[in-house]
Amino acid sequence: MSDFNPLKKYYRQPKLFVSLPSKGLFYPAGALQGDYNNMPVFGMTGMDEILFKTPDALFNGEASSKVIESCCPYIKDARNMPSIDVDAILMSIRMATYGEMMSIGHTCKNCGTDNEFDIDLRPVVDYFSNLKFESNIAIGEITVNVKPLSYKELTDFSVENFKLQRMLFQSGDMTEEQQQEHLNGIYQRLAELQVDLFMLSIASVTTPEGVVEDVELIRDWLRNADRPVYSQIKQHLEKNKETWDIPKQHVKCSECGTEDTVSITMDQANFFG
C-alpha cells in the first residue's frame, strides 16, 4: 500500500490549543512531547466514542487514557500523566468534539422542578490553567515534597476502593461472628489503602543532611513522627485536592428562582454524549 493517501487532507485537525495545568511538570520521561503551553486538542473519532461506551474500559480508566492519547498527540502515556491535568484535558476534548456548552440536569431543592442548564466549559478550563500545584510543606527544618497522583494511581485506587465498598454488603450466609470478622478485614484494608494513597503523594523529604526519596524510609519516619507532622501533611494534601476539584457552577431555578450549585461530573458515560 502506498504511503501517500489522497484523503489525508481530510483528516481531523486540531480544534483548539490549551495550556496544561501542570505546566508540563510531573510527567515521566517520554510521556509528554511538545509545548505544554500550546497543546493541540483534536475532536474524538468514531472509535474514540465507542471506547466510551465500553463499561470495563471506563471502569479502569483505559478508555480515558486511549482517548486522551488519540485527541492530544503530545501526550504519549496518559496512564502516567499527572491526575491534575486529566479534568481539564477531558473537558477540552469534549469542547473539541461537541462545542463549548454542556447541558446539566438539576432538580430544584425548593420546588422540585427539573431544570436543564447550559454550562460554558471554557471558564472551567481557564480556572485549571491558572492554578499552581503546591508541592512543598515546611515542617521545622525539613521540607516534605509532594506530587499529584498519576492517572493510573488514581484509577487503581478508585477501582480498589469501589471493590472494597461493595464487599461491605456481601456478607451472605455468614454467622454474626464471621460477618464481624469479614467487616473488620475490609475496614483494615480500606485504612491501608488510604495510607498507601498518602505515601504515593510524597515524592521526597529534604533534611539538612540531604534528600530522602526511599519510600520505606519515609514510611518508617511517618510511623515514628509526632501526630502534628502527619496532620500537617494530610491537611496540605486535602487542601490541594479541594483546590483542584472541578468548581461547582451557580444556577437558578427557572420556576421559583431558587439559587443553587451543580457539579460537573467527569463520569465519561454521561460527560461524552
Domain module count: 2
Mean pLDDT across the residues is 90
Q: Give the DSSP E fraction (strand runs of 2 or more residues).
A: 15-25%
Rg calculated over all Cα atoms: 22 Å
Kindly state the percentage of residues in helix: 40-55%
Notes on the protein architecture:
It is built from ten helices and ten strands. The chain is an alpha+beta fold. The strands form four sheets. A four-stranded antiparallel beta sheet has the order 5-6-7-8. The protein has a two-stranded antiparallel sheet with strand order 1-2. The protein is globular and about 65 Å long.
Keywords:
four-stranded antiparallel beta sheet, alpha+beta, 273 residues, 10 helices, 18% strand, two-stranded antiparallel ribbon, 2 domains, 42% helix
Can you summarize this structure?
42% of the residues lie in helices and 18% in strands.
Topology, element by element:
Layout (H helix, E strand, L loop, with lengths): L13 E5 L20 E4 L3 H6 L3 H5 L2 H10 L14 H13 L2 E7 L6 E7 L1 H8 L6 E4 L2 E5 L4 H17 L8 H25 L1 E6 L2 E3 L2 H10 L2 H18 L4 E4 L6 E4 L5 H4 L2
Antiparallel strand pairs: 1-2, 3-4, 5-6, 6-7, 7-8, 9-10
